[in-house]
């Protein structure tokens, strides 16, 4: 009887082990990283002409999109970076909406425009509770908050990645030579999805 029991147990272990060893088919993820600055006019063009089309054309969970705000085009640029990080922390589902709203506000001049008032107006446009809006505002305005730390990490990452121009776009780690060329961007995404 013991032999039968051991045989059955070994068979069960072997079946479980074999089942665990089977390779599951996973679709390849496409990682898109955009280095940008809310004060960059070319970043605004990218957002309005290409990014929104990417979001429509590639409605798939296979695309992982990451924004890295370099915040190097003026002292007020860091305010936008901190606010975006605060939205990501408090209401991550509203991050892209906030990003689009804020970059739409960019004027046709290089002067200071990323003020607390302008940023707060864009936060108030989000479809979230008043409590969440207040948390976001407090988070991005509070020195040494998590939003401040994350914004600083993005700046350090951009420096480490030697980003000199914005927008800079990388698809699966490969830099796109002209991120404002929609055909080139879509071809690289399509190729990455097929790989």
From TrEMBL:
Domain Thioredoxin-like fold: 29-191
Pfam families: Thioredoxin_4 (PF13462)
Signal peptide: 1-21
Keywords: Signal
Protein name per its UniProtKB record: Thioredoxin domain-containing protein
Native source organism of the sequence: Staphylococcus coagulans
């Amino acid at each position: 009887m013991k032999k039968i029991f051991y045989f059955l147990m070994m068979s069960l272990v072997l079946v479980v082990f074999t089942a665990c060893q089977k390779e599951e088919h996973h679709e390849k993820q496409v990682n898109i990283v955009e280095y940008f600055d809310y004060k960059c006019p070319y970043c605004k063009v990218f957002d309005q002409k290409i990014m929104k089309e990417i979001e429509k054309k590639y409605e798939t969970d296979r695309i992982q999109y990451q924004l890295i705000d370099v915040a190097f085009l003026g002292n007020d640029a860091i305010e936008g970076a901190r606010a975006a990080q605060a939205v990501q922390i408090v209401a991550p589902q509203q991050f892209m909406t906030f990003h689009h709203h804020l970059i739409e506000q960019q004027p046709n001049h290089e002067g200071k425009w990323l003020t607390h008032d302008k940023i707060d107006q864009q936060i108030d446009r989000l479809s979230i509770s008043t409590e969440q809006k207040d948390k976001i505002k407090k988070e991005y305005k509070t020195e040494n908050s998590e939003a401040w730390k994350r914004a600083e990490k993005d700046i350090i990452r951009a420096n480490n990645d030697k980003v000199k121009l914005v927008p800079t776009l990388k698809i699966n780690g490969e830099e796109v030579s002209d991120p404002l060329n929609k055909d080139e961007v879509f071809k690289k995404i399509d190729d990455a999805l097929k790989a």
